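Please produce the structure of this protein holding shikimate-3-phosphate.
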Amino acid sequence: MKPFLIKPASSLKGEILLPGDKSIAHRALILSAITAGSTEIDNFPANQDCLSTLKVFQKLGIKIIKDKTAMVTVYGRGLRGLKKPAAPIFVGDSGTTLRITLGILSGQNFRVTLKAGRSLSQRPMLRVTRPLRMMGARINSKLTAHGSKLEEYPPITITGGRLKAISYKMPVASAQVKSAILLAGLYARGLTAVVEPIKTRDHTERMLKLFKAGLKLRENKIVIKGNRELTSPGRIYIPGDISSASFFLVAAAILADSELLVSNVSLNPSRLGIIKVLQRMGADIKVQSSKARLQSYEPMGDLLIKSSALRGVIIKRAEVPSLIDELPILMVAASLARGKTVFEGVEELRLKETDRIRSMSENLRKMGVKIQTVKADNCEKIIIKSAKQLIAAKVRSFGDHRTAMSMVVAGLKARGATFIDNITCIDKSFPGFLRALKNLTA
Ligand code: S3P
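Below is the modeled complex.
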């Protein structure tokens, strides 16, 4: 494949309406599948990950129709309506599809094997299989020893059955793990509780409430009542994806004379870390959320951003879950911010589609940025010093969509022509990214 060329741009102007939020769309589809009756999902994003979830539930016996617009209709069959698939199911490289679906499969009366693509087959699964086994699921996977520690990887064979409720204190902050346990809790007798060390995105809790599950929320504890059928809301609108918005927000902040309106985007408080940090860095962002949109199951609104001079800040460990997927593009912003930016507690970044600490550091260093990574015990920190001017270079996506999009944005602000080895991976979350960017840049 020919490397992709990015030429510098002078500004970014206009309005953008983004495809539906990936995390919310997975949950909308999964809950619709296990609820009797039909549910229409509007603004469903046609990215590879969400289409993986769609195909997985079709293989599990659910009729799902996707029309030419962004509308998906799911003909759900109730909590116990899934069917044993004829063959192993391929989940692609979507970690959310795999980990969350394992929660649902823990409660089914059949055995199924889930196979993953090359990148997902290297991502750890013990964090999710451990609590699901405690609930009664029988799970086999590929075991690998790392020194004295064992880790599990796909493919995974799971035999569900009667589940018992557990109370689980999560050792890592992960919305995927929390969601898997809560969804398994739908099939358990009694009350299943999850306690979070740091709050992660709460889309599963909001979607469960929308489907009238028996859910109670206390500070950092979520309790769900099992063995109760869900009720479909009939139609769900998926707000625009704030993670996809983040690439445009940073591009608008760093390119002179920019002014961008991002419409109908998710303003879920557990995902607003990117906005808070960019504002702290000095970015001129106005959040416009109408009352009606705030009262919806997921808050939604518009963002208006203008170019601004950025300064370095400290990002604390407790903030990381609220901007975990935005760290690569924030590393680009930090490279151009005056002074020093410190990202604390970012070790989970090593376990994404690729090791994003490595992919982003290697690329940004090639563009002249000074980056230091500090490891102590199991914690990691990234320190970035302003580059003043990015120098164009030949960089790599490492097959990771967010690394690729971040480097495209970096290329817009670099001196010279930047080349990225392979950008097809962008389709994992945002197939229309380059087209949208082209329409806005001058
Ligand atoms: C997601 C949770 C996060 C995030 C991922 C989507 C979700 O992963 O990085 O892109 O939809 O629940 P972790 O649960 O591994 O933190």
